[in-house]
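It would be a great kindness if you could assist me with a short task in structural biology. The full record is reproduced below for your convenience:
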Amino acid sequence: MIKLKNISKFYQPNVVAVDDISFHIKPGEFVSLVGQSGTGKTTLVKLLIGEERATRGELFVGGWNITKISQSDIPYLRRQIGVIFQDFKLLPKKTLLENVAFALQVCGKPMAKIKKIAPQVMKIVGLENKMNRYPHEVSGGEKQRTAIARSLVYQPKILLADEPTGNLDSINAQEIIDLLLKINSFGTTVVLVTHNRDIVNKLHRRVLTLHEGRLVSDQAVGKYII
């Protein structure tokens, strides 16, 4: 599903963000990508969604070599990869349902399809009773659930969660992790980027550990070791 072959990313004048990283994530896996700030996690996220290009190596997503992806193909890539961020990125003047529907509207989906899909994904994340509320009227956990619903509208093969619990308390954080596990049980490949030691250790799933831009550990049933 995701395959990196000797991927490196350098920034001028002499910054090595990612250094000769190789790994393979299979369809349906739940993988935690961990490491302290500045270890290359954010750079890898940007490479996976086509926001940055690798300096060296090859990067495959769903069998598609995106190493030198064209700007026009990036929107198609991002329909395969649902992305969730720490800061939610919701539109404040739209309801939760409208935020989810907007992701389909910008791609020109017919209104009949939007009216069917948007409520369905809101139900999956447990917000069917709060669809008409605005972001300022709900909790941080509910905002993140909305962001997850928005990421699911294209039924992506991969869900990339970049520090999704960073702004949440422990109870809401656990609810978000439980939701990611539920989505994973449907067959979606989930990559959780986090520095939350407790969450990683409770998952008992595969853990990739970065340190100073290099992959230093790949544990099939791992823990946060740094």
Q: What stands out?
A: DSSP finds seven helices and ten strands in the chain. The longest helix spans residues 170-185. Residues 2-219 form a domain with the Rossmann fold fold (CATH 3.40.50.300).
